Amino acid sequence: MKLPDLSPLFNARSVAFVGASNDPGKWGFLTLKHLLDGGFQGRVYPVNPRESEILGLKVYRDIATLPETPDLAVIIVPPPVVLGTIKDCVSKGIKAGIIITAGFAELGREGSKLQQEIVETARQGGMVFVGPNCNGIMSPWNKQHIQFPAFFVPPGPIAVIAQSGNVVDALSLQTKMHGFGCSRCIASGNEALLHCEDYLDYLGNDPGTRVILCYIEGFKDGERFMKVAREVSRKKPIIMLKAGKTQAGARAAVSHTAAVAGEDAVFEAVCKQTGVIRVKSLDEMLDTGLAFLRQPLPQGRGLGIVTAGGGWGVLAADACAELGFDVVQLPEDIIRELDKILPAWWNRGNPVDLVAGTAVDNTYKAVELVMQCPSVDAMMFLSLMPALRMGSFDAPHDEQAREAWGKKMTEVVVQAVDEFNALADKYNKPIVLASEYMCATHREQAEITFALGGHNAVCYRMPGQAARALDALVKYSEYLRKSP
Amino acid sequence: MKLPDLSPLFNARSVAFVGASNDPGKWGFLTLKHLLDGGFQGRVYPVNPRESEILGLKVYRDIATLPETPDLAVIIVPPPVVLGTIKDCVSKGIKAGIIITAGFAELGREGSKLQQEIVETARQGGMVFVGPNCNGIMSPWNKQHIQFPAFFVPPGPIAVIAQSGNVVDALSLQTKMHGFGCSRCIASGNEALLHCEDYLDYLGNDPGTRVILCYIEGFKDGERFMKVAREVSRKKPIIMLKAGKTQAGARAAVSHTAAVAGEDAVFEAVCKQTGVIRVKSLDEMLDTGLAFLRQPLPQGRGLGIVTAGGGWGVLAADACAELGFDVVQLPEDIIRELDKILPAWWNRGNPVDLVAGTAVDNTYKAVELVMQCPSVDAMMFLSLMPALRMGSFDAPHDEQAREAWGKKMTEVVVQAVDEFNALADKYNKPIVLASEYMCATHREQAEITFALGGHNAVCYRMPGQAARALDALVKYSEYLRKSP
User: Is residue B148 a contact partner of residue A355, using CB atoms and an 8 Å limit?
Assistant: First the structure.
């Protein structure tokens, strides 16, 4: 099957908005308003037979009377009217649509029949569409925010495909909180015509997309998915979460997007064969995706850990060993070098437990020494405090001084993470970081996390998260090496 | 064995600080400074033979010359001097100490021998001590912060016991970020004399402590631990993380606190028999602890889910079913009642998928209807948006208006969480919440999380976290019911 051209979905120069409304409580109002508020640069044509002006725009009574053939039609009309609207789009020569309207296959047999008619009509007319029963598409690089919620995710390297608009919103909002942002976000809904694999294929060739997060409730065309996933995962990592693992989940999936969840073991096998990185929960999804944005891929499972906290070292060693890492024995010559810069009572093992009061420069030297071990393929550094060029950690108590101090803290954390990443580049081995931001308030903590994203960097909150992220890097690297 | 009196450790009226220093880079300076900065109200006696004044306090040249017998001695002197210091403490009649100094059993045989001598000396002298090789103790309710890091956790309901100072710091800092705080934090180090179970016993009777988080690398007296844990877990929940599950982790634990990790299966059995709630990672620990602060305990595993996002509903159903919850079928009469307040095309299943545009009052009504089902023991509500009495979700773009808007958003989120919790009280069934804070910036998100803690409330970020928290509530409730 020849792949349909999806670019009008993401780079529309003109958009018809069928079912635009003046009622501020309706999606036909909010979604249009957000498209305009988001700074869309193209032409917008609201369509509604009973209005003359909406949000300052001239309204057209039907698709036929539009002054041009728009690249894209957004459709928010009642379910029984959707089929006719698609026919009108086809007549006008419109090639792409987003059907936001719900009430089709997810409601049962009648809805399925209607949905199938819509698909056939579109297909015969050479039109593709997203949905139905979806939330829209965001394409931040060109300010095309066709979306329900009123926040605007900044442009960034992460793409999101999800059969749930809610999942899209949660993930894209998290990319924003972490100072990154999204390239394309697709709420794919029932996937009646366009499927997950169509979007994957498009994103594989999308230069703005570096990592793809994908939430799926059920596959429509497993064979094609495998072919596409195999191709795309050679170019960029695909992180995937599949719902409907349990009976309760599968039942919920049917009533949500009419998705048939299928056997979990089959999905597991599909992931192994295609290089797709599977995650087990939404919590892990972003953590895993962020790991791929900055770090070189490790060449094996030999792991070095340097920690400023003994307990964190033990927890990280446990978490990594459980995931199949080899927490390597350090060679004698490296231990001798470490002896020169660490106090006499350091633990002489891996994890290297930095002794309190280690000078900042020695912290980086210790990390570099461990990275130089040939058996070390990847590094973990835990608890940033001894890596911060901060002078004093005594936070002042009066508010103004505190604010300046918070800014300084943000600066030195970003600087430290940059220093570690420079070592990662120098040795071409990943360094994954986890740390609390000691002495920071809740506001300062949020600022630091956000600022790190501006440097394309991430520091996990807890060692377990860092371990899972590192595991994803290794799995992807192993897949690429064994499937050239 | 009669339990030693630990109150001088947590409620000292006077503290000797042996090894106090004027060098701002040393722990003997920093720890003392933080005690003073933290607002300690008792008398403080720095001890150092070579100084006359430290941080404005008169310095004593030895313990013998102190003007009174202090309740507590903090000991930060080099390892070879510790034994003599304990002897001096005993001579002076001091009953409690905190040995911060490292370099004992964790270094091997010589260190173990010295450590054992110290223990015997103290024991014969009727003295107890924390450590050695530890970070100190924080007792925020009475502003007794004997600690290394320069942040002050506010007083609150959560106690932390951990063999790692770093773990104590990370957890207590997180309680602060979440707007809660800690009752007592104990970095227990090598646990040479006082063990985890001694602190547990004390906290069991501590009225300021409602939940205990405990990180352990290895048990010293398993039998006594079981006895104490059984008693305490009847009074308040104990959440526990044990390190050293893998060889790499166990090796790291030995070099950290000389702890012998033991068999993981044994620990699992211990937890089952004592009602201790086991968590698998530091990430889960706080989430689990927070669940116990506000919610009533569920009487079974029947679960109702109401969600404003279909995908979140599917994920929650999966996560909960995997943990052994029964996502119940709703009875016909409740479905008929829901029909009256939800649009015709709602999914008529559990999870109840609120259809976009549901009025706020109907959101709460829907939750209440599901709670009324006799088969529902516990509730989960996902995605707060339709529960917020916000008017409009369109955030203004200019900075001042945005700030006011952010405050309003914080207010309505707190209000919504309060409304849900009132329902929990009314029906005596827990409601666990998970939601993104739609439209919020990273700063606003931090503020909301913090403000919720001020109302003794929590809203998890992702459905998986909420599912684990709910599972902990059920497990604890099951334990209490079967062991009267």
Answer: no
Over residues A266-287, mean pLDDT: 93
Q: pLDDT tens, B382-426?
A: 999 999 998 877 777 788 888 888 899 999 999 999 999 999 999
Of residues A297 and A283, more confidence is placed in A297
| Rounded Cα distance, A143 and A152, in Å | 9
B88 to chain A, minimum CA–CA distance in Å? 26
CA–CA distance, B352 with B345 (Å, rounded to integer) = 12
Is the ipTM reported for this complex over the cut 0.90? yes
Residue A2 clears pLDDT 70, i.e. is over it: no
A151 with B450: Cβ contact below 8 A: no
Q: Judge whether A24 is closer than 8 Å to chain B, CB to CB.
A: yes
Which of B30, B36, B166 should we substitute to test contact with A (largest number of A Cβ atoms within 10 Å)? B166
Helix B463-482 to helix B282-291 angle (10° resolution) is 60
State which residue of chain B sits closest to A242, comparing Cα positions.
Answer: B315
Q: Compare CB distances from A312 to B166, B253, B314 and report the shortest one's residue.
A: B166
Least CB-CB distance to A383: which of B27, B166, B241? B166
Distance in Å, alpha carbon of A122 to nearest chain B alpha carbon: 25
Question: Using the beta-carbon criterion (under 8 Å), do B255 and A347 form an inter-chain contact?
Answer: yes
Structure tokens at A324: 């199949």
Instruction: Write the CB contacts of B65 (distance below 8 Å, at least 6 apart in sequence).
Output: none
Considering only residues B399 and A232, tell me which one the structure prediction assigns the higher pLDDT.
A232
d(CA A356, CA A368): 19
Test the B interface: residue of A177, A178, A314 with most B CBs within 10 Å:
A314
Of residues A245, A385, A445, nearest to B446 (C-beta): A445
Token reading at A5: 């051209």
User: Which tens digits make up the pLDDT trace of B243-301?
Assistant: 988 888 888 888 888 877 778 888 999 999 999 999 999 889 999 999 999 999 999 99
pLDDT tens per residue across span A419-467: 999 999 999 999 999 998 877 889 999 999 999 999 999 999 999 999 9
CA atoms within 13 A on the CB side of B161: 26
The reply to whether B442 touches chain A by the CB within 8 Å rule is: yes
pLDDT for B438: 73
Pairing of strands A43-47, A14-18: parallel
List chain B residues with CB under 8 Å of A310.
164-166, 252, 256-257
Asked if B383 reaches chain A (Cβ–Cβ under 8 Å), the answer is: yes
B246 vs chain A: nearest CA distance in angstroms? 5
Kindly determine whether residue B318 and residue A462, on different chains, have CB atoms separated by under 8 Å.
no
Number of helices followed by number of strands (H, E) in chain A: 16, 19
User: Can you tell me the mean pLDDT for A231-238?
Assistant: 97
Cα of A112 vs its chain's centroid, Å? 31
Read off the pLDDT of each residue in A227-250 and give the average, rounded to a whole number: 93
Q: Does B14 touch chain A (CB under 8 A)?
A: no
Neighbour-count burial for A209-241, b at 16+ CB within 10 Å, e otherwise? bbbbbbbbbbbbeeebbbebbeebbeebbbbbb
* Domains of chain B, each with CATH number or no CATH: 1-135 (3.40.50.720), 153-293 (3.40.50.261), 302-482 (3.40.50.261)
Per residue in A175-192, pLDDT tens? 999 999 999 999 999 999
Q: What is the pLDDT of residue A439?
A: 76
Cβ-based contacts of A315 with chain B (< 8 Å): 167, 241, 243, 249, 281-282
| CA atoms A188, A190, A194, A196: torsion sign | positive
Q: What is the mean pLDDT of residues B86-115?
A: 95
**Considering only residues 299 to 328 of chain B, which have any Cβ-Cβ distance to chain A shorter than 8 Å?**
307-315, 317-322, 325, 327
pLDDT at A249: 87
